[in-house]
Design brief:
Elements lengths: L3 H33 L7 H53 L1
Length: about 100
């Protein structure tokens, strides 16, 4: 005869096994993605292609960084302006009371 406790432990065991299975699938997928990016260091042509790709990626990253930096500065300036406007509105409301 099984009790609720027996049923609970068996279901948690199967859930744990399922979770482990999912983790294995995720690990296998990430390992296969990493192997796609591997470079054969014995083949000079592959090395040249990998180098060109790295240079290209570096240019894209630098461009994205400049854009993000510009957006950050703009956002910071807007925040400062909003804080100044809020302070001036507070001063006006204090004078009116």
């Amino acid at each position: 005869m099984s009790t609720w406790e027996d049923l609970d432990s068996s279901s948690s065991d199967s859930e744990e096994e399922g979770n482990i299975g999912l983790m294995t699938d995720v690990a296998d997928n990430s390992m296969s993605e990493d192997s796609d990016n591997e470079v054969d260091f014995t083949d000079i042509d592959n090395l040249c292609l990998a180098y060109q790709e790295a240079i290209s990626n570096n240019g894209m990253i630098a461009s994205a960084y400049k854009t993000m930096k510009r957006n950050y500065k703009t956002t910071c300036n807007e925040i400062v302006l909003m804080q100044q406007e809020k302070a001036s509105l507070n001063d006006i409301s204090l004078k009116n009371t």
